[in-house]
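Translate sequence into structure tokens.
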Amino acid sequence: MKLSLFLNQHMDEILGEWDAFAKTLTPAAEHMSGHALRDHARDILEAIALDITTRQNPEEQQQKSMGKAPAHNPQSAAAIHGTLRHASDFTLIQLSAEYRAIRATVLRLWLPHVRQMQGDTIDEMVRFNEAIDQALAESITTYSAGADRSRELFLAILGHDLRSPLATMAIAGNLLTHPQLPPEQIVPTGVRVKRSALLMNRMVDDLLGYTRTQLDSGMPIAPHDCDIREICESAVEDAHSTHQATVFKLTASGQLKGYFDDVRLHQLFTNLLVNAAQYGAKDSPVLIDASGQADGITVRVTNYGAVIPQASLQSIFKPLVQLPSEMEQDTRPRTSLGLGLFVAREITLVHGGSIDVRSNAAEGTTFTVELPRKQPC
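Result follows.
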């Protein structure tokens, strides 16, 4: 059976294999539907089947083998696949693995249908491999373009968010060196310096957490016996030092001791509290509730204000995502770099827990962290 014919007649079987392999590419694929995992797979395979049957002279074949195929089409199925895989947090290695798996799958399923290995059969195999390589190149091109845009966006956000605390510290430095500075202004000026330093330190912490996950080294933790209530209290103190106009209310109940990394959890809860203070209504408190159960601990952080759109709820934990502020003149400090919630999710996951968010007008916006109660090994 000709390979192009086999691709079209056995499409569902091949796509089933594609789905099964894509599901193994965690953590990116863990929460994706079968439709999302498959996205443009059918179109890619149909384009490959068409390419195999398209007439090609020796010169064209040589050009394609040297990577000099016709100009890249940004609207091809493979190109769109690369864009979507980047948006879904697949790594470049995982994207390449998909094509390696589909190449092996097609050949494994097709070869039993080949009665005799002839020149035409070998030519079809060569054309198939060329088409797979071409599709992979198109996917990598758009994936890399998306990665470049994300990098540029990150640098722009970093420069923007650092500018404000740096400017504050520069002004404070000038004031403190002024010989005629009134004594009563020294303490308030020092407070502004301390606040700006805390903002920049939080940015650095988030940046380091993000970098570790991108290098596949994971979020390191050093768990030991600790008390979630004490961690929440220190997180409230840190969040309030940044957002002094916000009222934070902590409630705690049940057994809150467990085996966790208190430094990482402090970073997790501080990020959630700062996010809540940044986006919540100015005249409403930020609530943090910690409750202990037999097998775990639940911490909820709630703020009241603008409802997060459903579409944003699906992407809010992705890196470099910042929700727009309702008020153009909102002067509250922005400290997340679009990384705060991403880092919060990674810390939760490395503790074996889960985090989700709900947002509506009646109940506000609530981030819920579920942490299993573990014992020392």
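Note: The chain has 13 helices and seven strands.
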